[in-house]
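Annotated sample (chain length 136).
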Amino acid sequence: REHAQTLLELDRLRKQLREETEEMERNKSEADGYRHMLVKITGDLNYANDDIEKERERAGRSVADCDRTATALRHKHADEIIKMGEVHAEDLAQRDQQVNRAWQETQLARAEVTRAREEAGRAVDDVQQAHAEEMN
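Output written by the structure step:
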């Protein structure tokens, strides 16, 4: 009888060992699946991080390019404004010369008119005097 109980206990322990072994195999298989997923996710994450880093570098280069372009445009714009100012100043100087020339010509013409008027006045006086002398 003791021998039978020992055999029953042994069968029960074998069955329990088999169930625990099967459970351990399932857990191991599940852990392997999770490990495989973790490796894949880690690879995907590394790939995504590499892409993000490359995109950051591209964005940084783009910002630097934009800054250089904006600086160049500002310099070019400033140069154009300076040139426009110089052209405007030259135009104003030419206009001043034209105005001064026109003023001088006007003054000369006025002086000529005044001289001609005085001459005409003297001529009229001379004619009137000659006419008055003839009448006398």
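Annotation: Helices lie at 2-135.
Annotation: The radius of gyration is 57 Å.
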